[in-house]
Amino acid sequence: MTSNRQQWIDAILHLRLHFSLLLMPVYLFALSQVPTLPFVEDSYTNPYTISGIIVFFILHVLVYPASNIFNGYYDTDTRSVGGLKNPPPSNVKMLWLANILDLVALAISFLLKIEFTLILLSYITASRIYSYRLFL
125, CA 20 to 30 Å: which among 71, 85, 95, 97? Predict the structure, then answer.
């Protein structure tokens, strides 16, 4: 039986932050191609505003890692996956961390614009439906 501390460390490893940041060039390229950022109030003249940074943080630091950890909990991978050579065993702390990250992402997104929050909620829902296994 692993300790509570070790379970949290294992859960954090399952976030695979480095893997989520591999999507950064796609986000930056898309950002460079639009005259304004959709779903944010202050970006009608400059796409590189604080809102763009907040959206980046929401996606790459909160939502994508939460999707990774939620998927990792249900997949119970034992071989190399998404940048982890030997993934630690799944534990319930992974679900707690995924839920916390998604709720924080939704709360921050709500401060930007409700439409962005709804789209983010749709992504989170689709990601969880993809990963969820009814019978383990």
Answer: 85
- CA distances in angstroms from 113 to 38, 40, 78, 109, listed in the order given: 9, 6, 40, 7
Which residue would you say has higher pLDDT here, 47 or 49? 49
Q: Give the chain's radius of gyration (CA, Å).
A: 16
The whole-angstrom separation of Cα 56 and Cα 24 is: 8
In three-state secondary structure terms, 136 is coil
Answer for the pair 113, 42: CB distance below 8 angstroms, yes or no: no
pLDDT digits (tens, 9 = 90+) for 75-86: 766 666 656 677
Provide the percentage of residues in the chain whose pLDDT is more than 70. 78
Question: From CA 28, how far away is CA 9, in angstroms rounded?
Answer: 30
Q: Is the dihedral of CA 44, 45, 49, 50 positive or negative?
A: negative
